[in-house]
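User: Show me a protein chain along with its predicted structure.
Assistant: Here is one chain, sequence first, then structure tokens.
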Amino acid sequence: MEGGINTMKKVTFVAIILVLTLMLSMSFLPGCKTTTTAETTAAATTAAETTAAATTAAETTAAATEAGKVIKVGFTILCTDGFYIKKYIERYNQQIADNGYESVMLDCTFDVAKQVSQIDNLIAQGVDIIFVMPADPKAVIPGIQKAKEAGIPVLAVHDKIDPSGEQYTIGYAGADSVKLGEGAGILMEQALNGNGNIVVLGGSYGANYGIALYSGFKSKISAGIKILGEGDHGWDRAKSMALMEDFLTKYDNIDGVYAFDDNTGFGAIDAIKAAQRTTIKVVSINGQKEAFDAIKAGDLFGTVKQDPVANVDKAFESLALFLAGKDVPQYNYSDSPIVTKENVDSLEPSF
């Protein structure tokens, strides 16, 4: 009996030593510490969030490319009207068909709250990627952040997302808006030989696109060119004409006009012709066929090409790289050549 008791004491002693050894070894493991229930729960939550974040958009989309699975592209677009946009949509639909993709396109009509809601809609529909033509580069960020958290990649098109939200996208595809503005500035320098008074007919001043068109332009005009006034035409030819009529009434010394697109440039030209002040030089952006014709006729000094076909192709180029698991350029820019009388016959209109 006494031997059995001694044996039990030895076993108990060994067990205690093992437990103490295990506790000590755990206390010296790198990064380990004694945790409370709350800390453990918090750690579990963090781990779950990390795991969710680790399920990258690339992995999600890679799964979508399995045999028999058709890629579904979601697109929240600014609007569906206007020469540029119509050509953009036409090329987009062609790319969708040529690649065998499916598409869900939603028109936010320049309403960022509606656009964020549309992103939620596209997430719920389980699209494989979302193209965002941002109505507001900052206010749309919560929507694209949700998409990333849901494992859906986002590609900004036509206009960039604010830098604070670029982490939620795979990149941007389209024209370099600053270079578009720079091209217009170079044209104005040529038109006025670096000296004169101008007015600016702009649009989307609060968006990256409008800001870039304006800042790029100003960076290329010399100190001898003075801006007398500027206004927002809302991308409407009739409104642009009305703005120009007001400027012509207010200022009798206008030498040049910078219009943010060809169509609104034509509005300015209409007003200039009506006022018989045809020595005023007009420069614009887009490079549509009517602009080419106006350059040849001497009504428009020059334009900067922004090709909707090339911009769409850049978007699908970025998508193809992403699906192939390759690096996607943060900024996948299309070319934006300057068009004047000297080279108008050697270039093709944007649309």
